[in-house]
């Protein structure tokens, strides 16, 4: 009987110790999940910021390329006009206002 009574008294103690251990390990698991979640959130935020920066950089580069193309076309057009004016002045000894206005 002594063994039965000891087993009966040990069982609640063992259950209590097991509950304490599982309670502690449950908190460890929750803490690990929280830490992993925070790390993954940080990685996602970093990637989103990098993507935004890259998209902004690409947009700025595209705008600069468009502006440079427009500037190049404008310079070519004005350069052609100046060459034409130079040709008109060389072809004619004097150019009056009316001739200049008609040419432009």
Computed structural class: mainly alpha
Order of helices and strands: HH
Total number of strands: 0
Distance between the termini: 123 Å
Low-pLDDT residue spans: 1-5
User: What is the arithmetic mean of pLDDT?
Assistant: 83
Shape category: rod-shaped
Number of helices: 2
Give the helix level as a range of percent. Answer: over 70%
Main beta-sheet strand count, sense and barrel state: none
* % residues in beta strands: under 5%
What's the Cα radius of gyration?
A: 42 Å
Please, what is the oligomeric state? Answer: single chain
How does the SSE layout of this entry go?
Layout: H1 2-91, H2 97-103
Keywords:
104 residues, mainly alpha, 93% helix, disordered N terminus
Summarize the structure.
This protein has 104 residues and is an all-alpha fold.
Could you please describe the fold and organization of this structure?
With about 100 residues, the chain is mostly helical. Helices cover about 95% and strands about 0% of the residues. The chain has 2 helices and no strands. The protein has helices at about 1-90, 95-104. It is rod-shaped. Mean pLDDT is about 85; it is low at about 1-5.
